[in-house]
Amino acid sequence: MEANTAKSEQQMVATRYNQAMKLALDYALAIPGLLLIAPLFIFLAIMVKLDSPGPVFHRRRVLGQDGRVFYAFKFRTMYVNGDEILARYPKLRRELNKNYKLKCDPRVTPVGKFLRKFSLDELPQLLNVLARDMSLIGPRIIAPDELIKYGQYGNTLMMVMPGLTGLWQVSGRSDTTYDERVALDMQYITEWSVWLDIKILLRTIPAVLKGDGAY
User: Fold this and answer.
1) Rounded to whole angstroms, how far apart are CA atoms 108 and 81?
2) What DSSP string describes 28-92?
3) Local mean pLDDT, 10-residue blocks, the chain (215 residues)
4) What is the value of pTM for the model shown?
5) Domain residue spans in the chain?
């Protein structure tokens, strides 16, 4: 009994230590990162504004840790009348309902296509990292109605914060099937370590520059 209690206490200490390390990594990179990219941030905001009418930022309603709903910030990449545009393409609507992604999306603006290709539209999510809605590395963010697609793994997904980047983003991104995305998220959660986060960060840079699987 005492041995089990001691083991549980050790696990709790290890968990708190790991959480502290992840928090330190997030802040150590997110704060300097925002300062360094401030000129780029402003330039991209101007480009979005000049490209098409509408707000600079889009707030996406998503699920966070413990099932908490929050709004993830992104640069707007779609026309404001996107629903009207998509209504003209019933086949694309069915594809979107199935995969939550479209390879050729008529709603996306010219500047939006560029931002998506190099994941520049997600830079505002650094603000979500600082607000502790997200981590730099973690499972991909999902909308509330997507949780059902995770089936038995839904509770596991809700145990951690979603990430700005993660295994999915460095493993093909939108070229993967939905089942593969779920498997990558579960792999990340079960195998997590600080070193895994660092490896994913290092893999993110070439993945973003190549732009493969991003649309």
Assistant:
1) 10
2) HHHHHHHHHTHHHHHHHHHHHHHHSSS-SEEEEEEE-GGG-EEEEEEE--B-TTHHHHHTT-HHH
3) 47 65 91 94 96 95 95 96 87 81 87 92 96 95 93 94 91 80 93 91 85 60
4) 0.85
5) 17-210
